[in-house]
Automatic annotation (TrEMBL):
Pfam families: OmpA. Keywords: Membrane, Signal. Residues 1-25 form the signal peptide. This is Outer membrane protein OmpA. GO terms for cellular component: membrane. InterPro entries: Bact_OuterMem_StrucFunc, OmpA-like, OmpA-like_sf. It comes from Paracoccus alcaliphilus. Residues 69-81 have a biased composition (Low complexity).
Length: 658
């Protein structure tokens, strides 16, 4: 029992001790409550010590003490209850305080939240301001960056332009260097070719070599012997290399071209000025070789029947025109012709002869238009007008008419008696119904030259009658002749390479060299068929040089003809039937018609100079111009060697014996 009571008392004491702790665990206690708990714990410990002392005391004492203890416990319980009530009150007060503090804290928190919201609002506003400021700064920065980019772009463009300019300059310098290098390489190649040019081996080179084996052999030997490019000369004059890849001539006279590799190729046959004869020697080609065959040449080659004309009979003609030749109406070699060929070409030269032409047509219907225009001097033919045989007037002047044939070739017609019109002579021309004419030139010594021409003013017969009545027939184209087989003609006569250095004996020998022919030819065949004319070698008259467009010969130049004049005069003295053909030639500058008329005028001037200065009988001279048909140097352009005059002795062709 005692033990139970003791245990109960212990439990109560424990509860009394632990009660405040439990309450404190539920509700936070202030610092004073903790002090009270410590006091009660001390009292509990004090009672426990007292109970242990009581247990050691006698039972009565213990009972008394238990009672006392019971009373104390009751008091203590009451005290505890009171304390608990106070504690609960205190806790309630504390709870109210805590509630107040919570409300205060909530209020403070609300105020803090408001303050926080205001701060956040201010911060937001400040942030917005900062954002706006940042945006402004960003825009400014972007603008600055844009300006910087634009500035950099301008700088880059400027730099690009400068770089492009530098690149262009570098490119130009590279191109200049490349051009210099190419030029140096070209010069080196030229130097190499100049040292040892090679022969081309292409199709064109092989074809030309097969067509001209002789010239190819000569060229091959020259190359093998060390031919250099600087030994070549341009065909038109000057040293190689030639402009526009013009043909060149080797030292031995072979005309060549160069291909893109600088190799030598034989020039076409039409460009070659030399050929290789049967003995393998290189000889000068006649200018008439390999030329186009004209309609006049074809007609002359086919000519067979004898020409007929009323003027060949002894009967009288339908009209007679006489003229006394004086210094005023005759022409000398130093004088220009009265009519410009340019005006004659355009048809502007009519002068004041139209009325004479009309009066002649009214008074006399005999004679041809050519006779009236060139022999009687009654006017000029109209350029563009058509004559017989479909010939059209291309150039018309009082002294010459150039006609164009159907094949495009041209022929010049003139007064063949013009050379005989010397001061003191009387010229009587009798016209006949068929257009032929008979002209008798009577000289102061009594000698006469009778010339009979057909309607086209071609000479049919020319006869010299001496003062004692003896007749010498110089030209006779009235007999029948055989047609000319051009293919069967002998090879052209060798052409002298250099006639300027010939003395009188050498020149006489060259002129008197007999032609290799066995038949006669008419004057028309000699004039119009190049292959017939080439049977006699020409002698170039290098002493005469004409000004551009001029046919006059100065006195100083005429004196250069002294050797030729003496040779011809001596030949005629030995044989009064000697006939010499004086030829005129031009280069390719100018129109065909003007060049043809100009060359014919120049040939007439040379013949006049021979008669005036060296007493060469004019009836033994025949003049003919060929314009640019037969080039000595077979090249286009202004070439001095092509503006030349030449003389041939054609006696053997006209009067072959046997």
């Amino acid at each position: 029992m005692r033990r139970i009571i003791h245990n109960s008392t212990a439990i109560l004491a424990c509860l009394a001790i632990l009660g405040p702790d439990i309450a404190q665990a539920q509700v936070p206690m202030p610092q004073i409550q903790l002090a009270q708990n410590e006091g009660r714990l001390q009292e509990t410990e004090q009672r426990q010590r007292e109970r242990r002392r009581e247990q050691r005391q006698p039972q009565s004492d213990r009972q008394e003490r238990r009672q006392q203890q019971q009373r104390n416990d009751n008091q203590q319980q009451q005290t505890q209850q009171r304390e608990q009530r106070e504690q609960r009150q205190q806790q309630q007060a504390q709870q109210r305080q805590q509630q107040e503090r919570r409300e205060q804290r909530q209020q403070q928190q609300a105020e803090q939240r408001q303050q926080q919201e205001r701060r956040e609002q201010r911060q937001q506003e400040q942030a917005q301001q900062r954002q706006q400021q940042e945006r402004r700064e960003q825009r400014e920065q972007e603008q600055a960056q844009q300006r910087q980019r634009e500035e950099r772009q301008r700088e880059r463009r400027e730099a690009d332009r400068e770089q492009a300019q530098e690149r262009r300059e570098r490119q130009e310098r590279r191109e200049e260097r490349a051009e210099r290098q190419q030029q140096e390489r070209r010069e080196q190649r030229q130097q190499q070719r100049r040292d040892r040019p090679a022969l081309a081996s292409g199709d064109t080179a092989r074809q030309r070599a097969s067509n001209m084996p002789g010239l190819h052999g000569v060229l091959s030997r020259e190359v093998d012997d060390g031919l250099r490019l600087d030994q070549l000369r341009c065909l038109g004059g000057g040293r190689a290399p030639c402009a526009n890849d013009a043909p060149m001539v080797t030292p031995r006279g072979v005309v060549v071209n160069t291909n893109p590799r600088g190799e030598l190729v034989l020039a076409p046959s039409g460009r070659q000025m030399n050929r290789v004869d049967g003995d393998g020697r290189i000889v000068r080609r006649a200018a008439e070789e390999d030329t186009r065959r004209t309609q006049s040449a074809i007609e002359a080659a086919l000519e067979r029947s004898a020409r007929r004309a009323n003027a060949l009979d002894d009967r009288r003609g339908g009209g007679l025109f006489e003229q006394l030749i004086t210094e005023g109406n005759s022409r000398r070699s130093s004088q220009e012709f009265g009519t410009s060929l340019r005006d004659a070409l355009s048809g502007n030269d009519r002068r004041d002869r139209r009325n004479d032409w009309r009066r002649s047509n009214d008074d006399d219907d005999s004679g041809s238009d050519l006779t009236k225009a060139l022999v009687l001097g009654l006017g000029a033919l109209a350029v563009g007008s058509m004559l017989n045989n479909n010939r059209q007037v291309a150039l018309s002047s009082p002294d010459r008419v150039v006609l164009t044939r159907q094949d495009g070739s041209q022929e010049v017609i003139k007064d063949e008696v013009a050379l005989l019109r010397q001061p003191g002579s009387t010229v009587a021309t009798e016209n006949f119904d068929d257009g032929s004419s008979r002209t008798i030139v009577t000289r102061p010594d009594g000698s006469k030259v009778v010339t009979i021409r057909d309607a086209d003013l071609r000479v049919l017969r020319r006869t010299l009658v001496t003062p004692d009545g003896r007749s010498t027939q110089l030209i006779d184209d009235t007999a029948e002749v055989e047609p000319v087989d051009i293919a069967s003609l002998p090879a052209p006569a060798p052409v002298p390479v250099d006639t300027s250095s010939m003395d009188e004996a050498a020149l006489a020998a060259a002129l008197r060299r007999e032609a290799d022919v066995n038949r006669n030819f008419t004057l028309g065949q000699i004039r119009n068929i190049p292959e017939v004319r080439a049977l006699v070698a020409p002698i170039d008259i290098d002493a005469i040089t004409f000004d551009t467009g001029s046919a006059a010969i100065t006195t100083d130049q005429a004196q250069q003809l002294s050797v030729l004049g003496r040779v011809i005069q001596d030949a005629i003295a030995d044989n009064p039937q000697e006939i010499f053909l004086i030829e005129g030639h031009t280069d390719t500058v100018g129109s065909d018609a003007m060049n043809l008329a100009l060359s014919d005028r120049r040939a007439e001037s040379v013949a006049l100079a021979l008669s005036e200065y060296f007493d060469v009988p004019p009836e033994n001279l025949v003049v003919q111009g060929y314009g640019e048909q037969f080039l000595k140097v077979r090249a286009e352009g202004d070439i001095r060697d092509n503006r030349r005059a030449a003389v041939r002795r054609i006696t053997d062709l006209l009067h072959h014996e046997g």
